[in-house]
Specification:
The protein has about 270 residues and is mainly α. The protein has a single domain (about 40-265), classed as MetI-like fold (Orthogonal Bundle). About 75% of the residues lie in helices and about 0% in strands. The protein has helices at about 5, 15-35, 40-45, 45-80, 80-95, 100-110, 120-125, 130-155, 160-170, 175-185, 185-200, 205-210, 220-230, 235-265. The two termini are about 25 Å apart. About 30% of the residues are buried.
């Protein structure tokens, strides 16, 4: 019996409609408040342009770090067995369920004044908290799991005979990785990269505690939106315009992911 033939109990339509409305109506209400005629001027205003610049640069850098760190980590997890694999998966998943402010506090405890590494770095003249580097680290902390989980899932679904055949023909492990493994997991890698960038762009909690909210240095788009509703130099109309940017990025990311998923399914 098909799923369509099985049908849906009539009583489920009401909570389903309420759930859909809970997700959709706040976004519609937000879009309705935007003065669309003023959007172009708001987007080129200095405070908006600075927040966009900081967000795009830091999110792109954090995404690059996620690729450099996440692909090896995903490979290790995918090849691990037993308790080690379980422990590594739990470690990677932790930032997804950890409150962002706790993540920021953890980063401060490691790299801040009096932290495990903070005082040692200070002696070397290196100060990380409340700098642009802190924004990148916070974004990487929260975005890395998205890349690792996507890549690890693709690796676990990969048939090992392709890699084994290449190794049998004399290919080195590095050659197998870059010429066989990565091309075969490309859809998962692209999906993880998009999700990581989107998550980094929208990061707020860990950034607020670990990096602060200095205009032109650590004030990202989410921080600028928060600042607007505290009356600190950014109007609420600007906050709505910045919110529109984040929504547009999220919708674009979902559309790209949907397209990649559909292409992979047809293949």
């Amino acid at each position: 019996m098909s799923e369509r033939a099985a049908g849906i109990p009539g009583g489920l339509y009401i909570p389903a409609a309420v759930g859909g409305g809970l997700l959709l109506l706040p976004l519609i209400a937000l879009l309705a408040r935007i003065d669309w005629a003023t959007i172009p001027n708001m987007l080129v205003a200095p405070e908006t342009a600075n927040a966009l610049r900081v967000s795009l640069v830091t999110a792109a850098t954090a995404t690059a770090l996620c690729l450099v760190l996440g692909i090896p980590l995903a490979l290790v997890i995918a090849r691990a067995r037993g308790w080690l694999a379980t422990a590594l998966r739990a470690l990677v998943t932790l930032p997804l369920v950890l409150p962002p402010l706790v993540g920021g506090l953890a980063l401060l405890s490691l790299l801040g004044r009096g932290g495990v590494l903070g005082d040692w770095l200070a002696e070397l003249g290196i100060r990380i908290p409340f700098t642009t580097v802190a924004v990148i680290i916070a974004q990487t902390f929260v975005a890395l799991p998205f890349l690792v989980i996507s890549v690890e899932g693709a690796l676990r679904s990969l048939h090992p005979e392709y890699e084994e055949a290449a190794a049998t023909l004399g290919a080195s492990p590095t050659s197998v990785l870059f010429r066989i493994t990565i091309p075969l997991i490309a859809p998962g890698l692209v999906a993880g990269t998009i999700l990581s960038f989107t998550r980094a762009l929208g990061e707020f909690g860990a950034t607020a505690l670990f990096a602060g909210n200095a205009a032109g240095t650590t004030r990202t788009v989410p921080m600028a939106i928060y600042t607007a509703f505290n009356g600190a130099g950014v109007t609420q109309d600007t906050a709505l315009a910045l919110s529109l940017i984040l929504i547009a990025v999220a919708v674009t990311a979902l559309a790209v992911l949907r397209g990649r998923t559909s292409s992979a399914a047809r293949a």
